[in-house]
Amino acid sequence: MRRYFTKEVLFDEHAAISTIKQKAHPLQSKVDLQPLFNRIGDSRIVMLGEASHGTHEYYTWRAHITKRLIEEKGFNFIAVEGDWPDCYRLNRFIKGYDADNKSAFKVLRAFNRWPTWMWANWEIIALADWLRQYNIGLAANKKSGFYGLDVYSLWESMESIMRYLQKTDKAALKVAEEAYHCFEPYKKDEGQAYARALQFVPELCENEVVHLLKEIQRKLPSYNTDHENVFNAEQNALVTVNAEKYYRAMIKGGPHSWNVRDRHMADTLERLLTFHGPNSKVIVWEHNTHIGDARATDMIDEGMFNIGELARMQHHEKGVVLVGFGSYKGSVMAGRSWGAPMHSIQMPEAEKGSWEYLLHKAGAANKLLMMDDFMTDVFMENHIGHRAIGVVYNPRYEQYGNYVPTILPMRYDAFIYLDETKALHPLHIEPDGAQMPETYPFGV
């Protein structure tokens, strides 16, 4: 019997593999997901993770789960790790409100910020087409939506605000233009220059974006246009305020910028739930490092939290189900560095001793793990490495930084293990920008 040390105590690999063999559900077809749907029950929030931002099967399995939740359990919208303006355009398309764009392909081609492949891919086109068809004939308040939770779209959000105010409020437009002009000298490199300048002029554009948000919020009752467009204007103003905070946090380094970002995503999710009503339900698509409870990883040692942890704390009574994903080997779409061309990169077999290694050793087949079945000492007393691949990936260095020490039964409510996976299918768009926002860790 092979034994080795993990973070805490002597770990019995044989016992772990034996338990997985006994407790894991075979996942040979979509029908085998029924234990997961039973676990979801009447929960309000279901978060679907991914161990990379470029794996075909993560997208297709999540799409299947999403469709069933919408059709069978009345889920109202999808919220993803994407920019608000881009995702809002897709939202308008799938609801039939966009007269200019006649296809999901055309809408998704406009997702032109690197890494473009995260949402500009054929897997999302298929889901968007299904959502558009599903929404036909439904009342406005019954249509399923699609929204972005992220904080990176400072300039796109401000441009969206100005287009909206040009039609609705010329006085407030002047406030928006002042904020935009303040940031304009720093536009070319995704906030890096702004973050550097803050070291010498600590306030810079903070007052302008806060003033813009207050002005829009003050005048919201007078905007009598499409109610969702009014919400969109306020959300874009919030993005500008929190993006400025994010770039400010970049100066300090460490976990603070991560926390600013995930707090923004959690707050945006809360706003969307409120907007859709007290009985609304949401499906969240994000990387495992965001949706898997941070308290079950070494992230907590750095003072980091994430949207999965915050959702569990805030919505426990109404039900939150966190679903992780992982695979043992295959290929993945990623870049060798930030802004680099996208490639299908071969992903090596998982490191020995990792969760993915143990799951493979328990049988080279797909599995569904319901975490209530794994609350045993062998798993609960050890932080075991769990693979995490971001948009930047170099498999030569995987063992040094692509594994998050994790207590899996505490991090997720369910886990979908896919033994071998392949890269997703991008639309091959040339990105507009190549500067890396300082995300921590793994560029996720």
Automatic annotation (TrEMBL):
<protein>
    <submittedName>
        <fullName>Erythromycin esterase family protein</fullName>
    </submittedName>
</protein>
<dbReference type="Pfam" id="PF05139">
    <property type="entry name" value="Erythro_esteras"/>
</dbReference>
<dbReference type="InterPro" id="IPR052036">
    <property type="entry name" value="Hydrolase/PRTase-associated"/>
</dbReference>
<dbReference type="GO" id="GO:0046677">
    <property type="term" value="P:response to antibiotic"/>
</dbReference>
<dbReference type="InterPro" id="IPR007815">
    <property type="entry name" value="Emycin_Estase"/>
</dbReference>
<dbReference type="InterPro" id="IPR014622">
    <property type="entry name" value="UCP036794_erythomycin"/>
</dbReference>
